[in-house]
UniProtKB/TrEMBL annotation:
GO molecular function annotation: hydrolase activity, hydrolyzing O-glycosyl compounds
Organism: Pseudomonas syringae pv. japonica str. M301072
Protein name (Swiss-Prot/TrEMBL): SLT protein
A Gene Ontology term for the protein's cellular component: periplasmic space
Superkingdom: Bacteria
Keyword Flavoprotein tagged: no
Keywords: Signal
Keyword Ribonucleoprotein: no
Span of the signal peptide: none
Amino acid sequence: GLAVAQKPEMVNNPAQFAPVDEAMSDVVGLGLRRLAKQDPQKALSMLDGYAATMHFSREEQVEIAKEIGLTLARRYDDRALEVMTKYDPELRDDTVTEWRLRLLLRLGRWEDAYELARRLPK
């Protein structure tokens, strides 16, 4: 597991990781989150590729939403919304939610922003 954290490019080989339990999935998640700091585009496309086979823990999903989602969001890349929505559907992370709102407003998606704001804990 540690090797992936040190060499993010190892996550390029999905075959290494089958079959996948939660612990192993989270190792991959960590690798993808590290990769996102250097290359969010690539991390995003790999995340899509892995999504079907990985069983990320709820905690790891939120971390993915946070690190990959926010990296994209800060570049105002609207694909951030997809990641944040998918990996933090329960609005568990305030920063993720705040950036989702910010991005929706910036994109002029008022309805979506309104819906999201209504779901915020008071």
